[in-house]
Amino acid sequence: TQLLEQSPQFLSIQEGENLTVYCNSSSVFSSLQWYRQEPGEGPVLLVTVVTGGEVKKLKRLTFQFGDARKDSSLHITAAQPGDTGLYLCAATTSGTYKYIFGTGTRLKVLA
Amino acid sequence: DAGVIQSPRHEVTEMGQEVTLRCKPISGHNSLFWYRQTMMRGLELLIYFNNNVPIDDSGMPEDRFSAKMPNASFSTLKIQPSEPRDSAVYFCASRGTGSLETQYFGPGTRLLVL
Fold first, then answer.
1. N or C: which end of chain B has fewer CB within 10 A?
2. What's the pLDDT tens digit per position in B46-57?
3. Closest CA to A71 of A2, A1, A10
4. What are the tens digits of pLDDT across the range A66-107?
């Protein structure tokens, strides 16, 4: 069974701080996605990465896919209360439609 | 576009009762997914439809769960009989053609089985 472990599970920080969330597996994936989920809503896709070593930026969010395509990180610069939510990574292997979701990181940014 | 529509948003029922969850995918999307989310197990894929045909139901917990997609604009997930351990948030998601197309999630149905 493929597992995606995310760390940390919970994170509470002050507005303006930086943070990094990790997504790790022993499996090699063809693509990896990051989602943010707010209370009472479904996950919303933030980014998809497909190439080992790929780095994508979305305003204050920086996403990186590991060189071996087994892990990924999400870095948030100068966190804001609006960044609060559950962050999920999801990955798939080549030629499949099925995304396996990670265990999630629950972030709270205090004003 | 209205996005993926799910109903009901909340459902409270008693153990042993039948529960039917409904989903309307985004128009033009040919893939539909049903997920279940709990604190203990996270987000799990239950079943995947492509062009209204069930492709993979290996995530369906047991025979008490069934899903149908009679046409491109409607799907149901039925639990009969329901049990307290089925309490969770159930999400429907749809996606267009192409393996890297964005998957859009509905708002979910929060189910509580007493």
1. N
2. 999 999 999 999
3. A2
4. 999 999 999 999 999 999 999 999 998 776 678 889 989 999
Q: Does B100 touch chain A (CB under 8 A)?
A: yes
DSSP one-letter string for B39-73: TTTEEEEEEEEETTEEEE-TT--STTEEEEEEETT
What is the distance between the alpha carbons of residues A69 and A53, in angstroms, rounded to a whole number? 8
Q: Is the peptide bond before B70 cis (omega within 30 degrees of 0)?
A: no
* Window A:15-44, CB contacts with B under 8 Å: 31, 40-44
> How far apart are alpha carbons B99 and B95 in whole angstroms?
9
Task: Decide if A66 touches B, using CB distance below 8 A.
Answer: no
Interface touch B103/A45, C-beta < 8 Å: yes
Contacts of B45 in chain A (CB under 8 A): 98-100
